[in-house]
Structures are given as C-alpha cells and as structure tokens.
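Hi R.,

Here's the chain you asked about this morning:
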Amino acid sequence: MRAEGYVLCIALLAPGLATAQAMNDPTRPPGGFAAGDPDVAGDAGGGLVLQSVMISPTRKSAIINGEMVRLGGKYGDAVLVKVTENEAVLRSGSETQVLKLYPGVEKRELAPAAKKAAPRRAKAAQGGAGTAATGGAPQR
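And the predicted structure, written out as tokens:
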C-alpha cells in the first residue's frame, strides 16, 4: 500500500517538475548580453563587442568578445592602445577601432545652472509665534 502512495505522489508532482524546468531563469541576462550566447554572435554586424573594462592604479584591461586583453596586449592582429571608463581603442596598422561599452548611450556635459536666489525664511525662523524656542506654542 505504501508503494502505491509514493507512486501516486510522484505522478502528481511530475507535471509540476516538468513545468519548472521549462521556465526561464529571471536572473539570466537578456539575449546577446553575455559572450558566447548562441542567440547572438557579437553585435548586430557580427563585429567586436566591448563587454567590460577594468581600470586599477597599476593595470588597465578590457574584455572583448569574452577575451581579456591588457593595455598593450593583442586581440587578433590589433593592439589595445587605450582603455577608458566607457571605451577601448584597438589599433591594427593604420586603422583604429573604438569600441564603446554602451554604444547607444552618448555622454554629454550639462551647462551649469544659474544660481537661484536663497529662499525666504519663514516667519517662525525670525522669532515669530510658534517657534522651536517656545516649544511650538504661541507666546502669551
């Protein structure tokens, strides 16, 4: 009798397990985000993709199409000649290729805002009725 109960439990749980395996992982990055994603090979043109930059006081490097390249190092026949917080520059012979970390985002400097006049202080701050010095109660 007990074996039948186990078989029944497994039979009832099996469809739920199959559904759980078919669900997408909510923490997985969107398609094309990670290197080696079978859905996307590189960017839309199939070229190089800058995935990350690493900058420390002693070393600069970039991850290009899943491969870490140090400043001065080679990626294919190109040399990594510059790494900044949002781009990497490769040079191959006389050609230079700039890879942006966020190609669709352009950083712009904002014009400084005009200084605003200081707001007027409330009567309460000028010693009027209901100040903190009197505990918020009007003076008599």
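The first helix runs from residue 2 to 22.

Let me know if you need anything else.
M.
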